[in-house]
Automatic annotation (TrEMBL):
Organism annotation: Methylobacterium radiodurans
Name of this protein: Uncharacterized protein
Top-level taxon in the UniProt lineage: Bacteria
Length: 165
């Protein structure tokens, strides 16, 4: 999907969600995390409800939509937020400046950038991925598949500084 294309409810529904992991809600049970296949900034969690909540909504689970890793009150709010470029923090900008346009192995890249910046950068890379600014993929290797990363071609974003005006 093109970065400048307006995202609508229909655009979201035309895509699919893929299983992106699971979360534990303690006594309530597990939740499934979903990632949209064509809109990387959009994800959802089907989280369990306690008995009181379940009785109010008439279901045992509720879907919570997220854009750029932040929860939205509804799918309509998520669609609204998807039509505004993501805002990256100064820490994210430091990592992004070191992220190549061409594919590179993630683990050595993460270690090198972490050493250069004197801090762990794994969560920062995850946030850049959730904002659709970097891409990851798994590639075959021995003894198991390895993660690779690159700056997403044509990714549009705003820095915190620019957002403040």
């Amino acid at each position: 999907m093109a970065e400048t294309e307006t995202i609508t409810h229909d655009t979201v529904m035309a895509g699919r969600l893929r299983d992106a992991g699971h979360a534990n809600y303690g006594k309530l049970g597990g939740a499934t995390i979903w990632q949209h296949t064509t809109i990387p900034r959009l994800s959802a969690v089907d989280r369990p409800l306690d008995r009181v909540e379940a009785k109010k909504v008439g279901a045992s689970r509720v879907r919570v939509w997220s854009v750029d890793g932040a929860a939205c009150a509804s799918l309509d709010e998520a669609v609204e937020r998807l039509n505004v470029p993501p805002i990256i923090t100064a820490e994210e900008a430091e990592v992004l400046a070191r992220t190549p346009d061409e594919w590179i192995q993630l683990l050595p890249f993460r270690e090198q950038v972490g050493a250069e910046l004197g801090r762990q950068v794994g969560i920062t890379i995850l946030m850049l991925r959730q904002k659709g600014i970097v891409e990851n993929e798994l590639r075959p290797a021995e003894p198991r598949w390895e993660p690779w990363i690159r700056r997403k071609p044509g990714a549009v974003f705003t820095t915190e500084e620019a957002a403040r005006g």
